[in-house]
Amino acid sequence: MSRRSFAHRSAAAFIAAVIAPLTMMGSASGAEPVDVDSVVPATPAAEQLDRLSVSTTQIASGLRRPTAIAAPDDGSERLLVAEKPGTVRVYHPDTGLATSPLLDLTDRVDDSSNERGLLGIAASPDFAETHTLYVTYTSLPEGEVTLSRIALSDAAQDPVPADVEEVLLTQPHSEFTNHNGGQIAFGPDGNLYWSLGDGGGSGDPLNAAQDLTTLLGKIVRIDVSASCTDAYCIPADNPFVSDAQARPEIWAYGLRNAWRFSFDDEDGSLWIADVGQGTQEEVNRLAADQGGANLGWPCLEGTSVFDEARCDSEAEYVDPVFTYATSVEGCAVVGGHVYRGAEFADAAAGVYVMTDYCTATGWGLDTTDDAHPSAVIGEFPIQTSTFGEGADGELYVANDLPGQLHAVSFELAPPAVGCSVDYQVRSHWGTGYIGAVTVVNEGTEPVSDWSLTWTAPAGQTITSAWSAVVSQTGDLVTAVGAAWNSSIAPGGSVSFEFLGTHGGTVAVPGQFALNGSTCR
Predict the structure, then answer these.
(1) I need a surface site. Which of 17, 51, 198, 387 has the fewest CB within 10 A?
(2) Burial of 298 (0-12, 13-18, 19+ CB in 10 A)
């Protein structure tokens, strides 16, 4: 996690403004100046990220504006999907989406505006023993954001009566209807985390995000385990537990509307997606021991100063690890998860996956590199509203409208191949000729199941070949290895010859490609 004082940021901005004209003077006409600090050397992980693609498969439909996904770790393979009006539906891979809700809280949930409703759901880490769910919602009549515990009589209870609800914690939220936050999740430490927006309006008119006496604009961390005899307890290592002027529940602050966050179970880091005012969407990463972090709002929006009058020269603001332009690339960041599943581990292990509500662009961030290089890896369904992680670590998304549930999968394209080709005409006569080709693997990895393609010059047709299988469709020629030479070792080569006919010329083809990569 990078920390920087506002004074340091201001000085950096001044220096950048001074040197920018000098940088531009040395660049080609119309070229953008290079931001030296943003240049990240290529790494093997970053190279693999460039080859990663994401896709989704619809597995259920008919949801009513889904807002959150939870997966009880009880061996049931169920997914619990929260719906904005106040219901929780169950999806099972064998039976699909249940018609009747597991839980119905519509009599107490205020979903009167676009951002209000049932917002979050989490199953306790010991659900198999305690059968306990947690939900967050905006409550009637004034939109108070509410955290509640729901105790099932047993893990399979269906439906769950609403009167078993125990309200644990509330925060008044009546001035505006937006920026409610609402994500809840258990961290690897066993504590429950909850994000709350800054109270709404534009530009944090309540001055809540930097105010430690309110939970608005914060992520809170509480202990709801059986060892706590109260509704909830404050973990002893919470950052403001000894500050009489601060709410002890607060774990992080300076947030606008961090409606999506998740944990990386491998290192305990917290990944926070905070929706911007109109300039930048941002993703922040907090290490497991970084409680008390100030994310900067409303002084900062992403990496830009939003309201300098509300900046504190003594404050240390946490830099985001990723930003994108709101008006250009989307409208609201939808934070996802660091992939830790098994099915696609070879392709996507350790990649943080996210999207945008409006553009559906899918991004992947490399979590193994402190610079967090990123790449566009595909698209998600339009209006994706939430990510979820199954008990097995596989990922799911739901989209707001038309209300569908999708399974997420990944694919890794073969690495780019460094290669060279030597093409010779051994002999030619009348209308026939013999050609010989040698392909050299100049890369550092073996080329398996190699396939060499080229465009045959006009009038040339290949009729037979040896030491390779050669076919021709139109003017496109494809040669693949035989069973005994289908792989080319680094620095190695394969050779083959073929017999063909020509229409008066035996010109050499202009370009060859090995497994899709152009050879020299």
Answers:
(1) 17
(2) buried
Measured from the Cβ of residue 203, the count of other Cβ atoms closer than 10 Å reads: 15
Amino acid at 168: L
Single-letter amino acid, residue 5:
S
pLDDT one-digit tens code per residue, 88-144: 999 999 999 999 999 999 999 999 999 999 999 999 999 999 999 999 999 999 999
Which of 143, 179, 150, 141 is CA-nearest to residue 82? 150
d(CA 178, CA 335): 18
Cα-Cα-Cα-Cα dihedral of 81, 152, 233, 284, to 10°? -10
| Among the listed residues 454, 471, 429, 461, the one whose alpha carbon sits nearest the alpha carbon of residue 514 | 454
Q: Which amino acid is at 413?
A: A
Tell me the H-state helices in 257-307.
Answer: none
Longest dimension (CA), the chain: 98
Q: Does 23 have pLDDT greater than 50?
A: no
Q: How far is CA 345 from the centre of its chain?
A: 15
Between CA 11 and CA 6 the distance in angstroms is 9
How far, in Å, CA of 464 to CA of 341, rounded?
47
Rounded distance, CA 423 to CA 475, Å?
Answer: 17
Q: Which domains are delineated in the chain?
A: 3-16+42-412 (2.120.10.30), 419-518 (2.60.40.290)
Which helix (H) or strand (E) segment is 149 a member of? strand 144-151
Output the CA–CA distances (angstroms, integers) from residue 16 to 5, 10, 37, 169, 505, in the order listed. Answer: 17, 10, 11, 46, 60
Q: What's the confidence (pLDDT) of residue 226?
A: 86
Q: At 18, which helix (H) or strand (E)?
A: helix 6-25
